[in-house]
Amino acid sequence: MREEIEKLVTEGKIKPNQLEPLNQLIEAGYCMHRSWGFGRITTVDTILSRLTIDFQSKPGHSMDLGFATQSLDPIPSSHILARKASDLASIKQMAVVNPLELIKLALQSYGRQATVDQIQKALTPDVIEEDWKKWWDNVKREMKKSGHFKMPLKKSAPIVYHDEEVTLKERLTSEFRAAKGLKTRLTVTSEALKSLEDIEDPADLAQEIIEQLNTDIASHRSTQPAIALEAIFARTDLREACSIEGDVEGEIKACDIWAEITEPLNELLEKFPAGKYRKALQSFKECTPDWPDYLEKIINLTPQKLVSECANIFINEEKLDYLKTILRRYIKQQGASSEMLLWLVKEKTDRFSNLLGPQVFRSILTAMEQDQLQEKRSNRLGDFLLSDKKLILKLLDSADIETVKDLTRALQFSSCFEDVDKRSLLARIVKAYPAVQSLISGDQKKEDESILVSWKSLERRQAELDELIKKKIPENSKEIAIARSYGDLRENHEYKAAKEMQKVLMRQREELEGQLNLAKGTDFRDLPKDRVAVGSKVHLTNLENNEQETYSILGAWDGDADQRIISYLSPLGKAMLDRQKGEEVTFETESGNKIYRIESFEAHFADSDEEGR
Questions:
Q1: For labeling, which of 78, 102, 250, 552 is most exposed (least CB within 10 Å)?
Q2: Are residues 328 and 383 in the same domain?
Q3: Which pTM value belongs to this model?
Q4: Total count of domains within the chain
């Protein structure tokens, strides 16, 4: 064949500089095209000066000999791709019987080094047909034990094959000594910790690492306390794994560093890798007697993963009720962050199910609006609300119909969702609560929607509206005018933020005006003597545990759990209205029905009280 190709040069059918590349292609028998991928050369026609190549996507493709030398790279028959094409069955058997030999073949095919992605692309799906991760994890462990494979510290870096065998201990020692900076040394330390059981006599390697870490801890304790603490955690892990005695005199301890830290705790914790959050918080707890006070302050300031770890600390220390109190306060005050709320609604246990109510739904809308004002690109909380089709109904499950309507209005006026997403959420509510359809279609009548409220709560809502109209909206208008004067509205962040705030304020105004338009003020006087009414204080017996409970039933906006005041529109309020002494009432809760007996009732406000004015 070589002689025939040389004749083509003499005949002028190919150029002299194409002779050797063409011979290499033909001798190899396989090739690679940058667009069509791997191919097998099936025929060489010297008369017509053409090659026929079977590419996976273009079988039987014909190509001019001269053009082939420019667009194809030869692939030798020993290459992993050629071996698959010629004898796939033996390659599959190698993957099962001798996987390290297969990895060696793959690495040698790519110049003795290749990334994990390159190896996976070469072996899946035809060699490793399913569960690549499980197969690779097993092979990776064997590669670490072998002295021929140099595993990279970074996932994107290549794995290198060496003919000369280097023990795992020798390799790790060499890599640790060559590492530049504490962060890189901690990466090698992490690998060493994972590999200790495969190292013969690892104690001296561990001791060398510990001595260097001690030097680094001292130099980083003030400038980079987070990474210094990471080094202390690694030092402790090494000692425990290798049974090396700790508590060395003069050695810097974690508590020494925690005592010196001046930056906010949440900012420091976020400098740790997410996988170290739990260890960092545990260390902080052990070194800080008043740790609950600190965690209470930061739990609303951190990413979801860190919120979860803070919660776990409270739970593990049997402070679940304390944690719930913290969460309730943030939710009630509408100050819960989107990250904390995202953790709460994604929590898979039932520990916090009694917190998931209408107030959380309102908090979600408020938190999303705050994120929008701060121009946060991520909207993970909104995305989760959309993706979990049951969540919105779960949050509304314990709400009375007036609260559902109130929250439906809030969602309607929210600027945090695209129109199509908002319609999807509203449709879920309408399907479960058909009575809110009129709100969305605009057909409701005031007489059907009117609500009783105390004069005080009415005055509070009116004051909120007055402040909005007379102060907040005019101030926002000035901010818009000032921001507009900066020019170039496309890149004017101040203008964008002011306009977004304008949307929020206008929505709040419309919502407040709608609420006030439906409200009927009352002083809860002239109550009937023979039955429970709005304005009654009711004394009950819980028939499940025989405990005495007292609730006051007041207006739609008067609910106060701490004072045991409930709205007449709440499920329990509705259940007690118009009932008489001695009657039993059933109150539906998330955990099931509760049955109460009405023992007595009287007016919540005495004649001398001035409620309502």
A1: 250
A2: yes
A3: 0.60
A4: 6
